Amino acid sequence: MTLDAIKQRLSVFTDKKKFLIAYSGGLDSHVLLHLMSELSQSAGLTIRAVHVNHGLQKESAAWAAHCRTICDSLSVPYFLVDLKLAEQSGESLEALARDARYQAIEKILKNDEVLLTAQHQDDQAETLLLQLFRGAGVDGLASMPRCSLLGKSLHIRPLLDYSRRELQEYAKRHRLDYIEDPSNQEQRFDRNFLRLTILPQLEKRWKGIKRVLSRAAAHQSETKALLDEFAAQDLQAVQGDTKDRILISRLKSFSRQRQALLLRYWIKQQGFRAPSEKKLSHLFEDVINCREDARPLLHWRGAEIRRFQDNLYIMPPLIPHDAQQVINWDLKKSLAFPALHLELDPLKIKQFLPDLDKPVTVRFRQGGEKIYLADRKTNVSLKKLFQEARIPPWRRSRIPLVYHGDDLVCVVDVYPGSDMSRK
């Protein structure tokens, strides 16, 4: 394990010079921090470290203090993130902590920074076995990629080719003072059970099994990359007017297996978790193959898929919204609706008002509304306007309606023009 080798691994994926190191204080991340500290001096890199305190163990505050001391000794800027996690029924504590950790890190990652984490060859072997025991497909068996995205930033794992034993030897040689987490000995956690019980038995029978499993994960990763290329081509053929929708009639022209591949790829590209096999089955049965006039909804953690006519939509779960509210607006400043992820721009709205001698209010659909369409010189029901504009039903009560006195004059981003809001 040399500085040149680590530098080469980084340069394969990026030419950036700024790195954020996820530093837990344990063996793996301490070795990475020490390597990058030395490399920053010889190669002119800028590094800083982030420690995420999950608040799950009584020693966590002492560990955070230890990490600060180590970073100070290496002259590495240190950033602490405190989380308050609680174990939830039905959820893996490991998964909960991992998701919260990456969400917290993503928030502090700078645009010109690359995230480095210290997963190694043993971790990759464990991950492959865990995914295999869970019945995962190619995506899961590809395990941890060497390079991926976290939000809009690169996430690189430069130690994947090194074993835990090599990291221990490095730590011993450089006298690194790292934290020993007692929870790593608790075999109630699946990964610990594999590490402490199963893999040692496998290694007695098959020498170098961790290296072999890591290589198998790399083969699966290559297969995944190839399948993603095919899925990307298929997605172009079924893409709707926007990236968050696909055309069902075109999707159905493919085989069931090809549809499933495309759907998983599309969901991932939109930034959502992959659905379980059970959810994917419901997606076909209850959404894709339902009546065209039905209004199905399929949801799983952090995602919803809905259907309207020939379009399949994916989105985050809708935030509760009060459609009964009536807001008086003086047009002196923008009007924000956090639950709708939009903000009304008064300058854009004013151009559609005949004059400013009447009060302006913002309301939402209740039923029976009509609007005068100047280009048609007639009144049209809001229902008909939404149908003509092909507005999905779940959006109709969430579109702001601008009234000038008692007259409906603007249906935001629908009529009389578009781009009335900042989304």
List keywords for this structure.
Chorismate Mutase Domain, subunit A; Rossmann fold; 423 residues; 15 helices; alpha+beta; 6-stranded mixed beta sheet; single chain; 4-stranded antiparallel beta sheet
How do the helices and strands line up, and which of them pair or pack?
Blueprint: H1 3-13, E1 18-22, H2 27-43, E2 46-53, H3 60-74, E3 78-82, H4 93-108, E4 113-116, H5 121-133, H6 138-141, E5 147-150, E6 153-156, H7 164-173, H8 190-205, H9 209-238, E7 245-247, H10 248-251, H11 256-269, H12 277-288, E8 297-300, E9 303-308, E10 311-315, E11 327-329, E12 335-337, E13 342-344, H13 346-350, E14 360-363, E15 370-373, E16 378-381, H14 382-388, H15 393-396, E17 401-404, E18 407-411, E19 421-422
Parallel strand pairs: 1-2, 1-4, 2-3, 4-6
Antiparallel strand pairs: 5-6, 7-10, 8-9, 9-10, 11-14, 12-13, 13-19, 14-17, 15-16, 17-18
Helix pairs in contact: 1-2, 2-7, 5-8, 5-9, 9-11
Summarize the structure.
The chain has helices at residues 3-13, 27-43, 60-74, 93-108, 121-133, 138-141, 164-173, 190-205, 209-238, 248-251, 256-269, 277-288, 346-350, 382-388, 393-396, and strands at 18-22, 46-53, 78-82, 113-116, 147-150, 153-156, 245-247, 297-300, 303-308, 311-315, 327-329, 335-337, 342-344, 360-363, 370-373, 378-381, 401-404, 407-411, 421-422. The protein is an alpha+beta fold and 423 residues long.
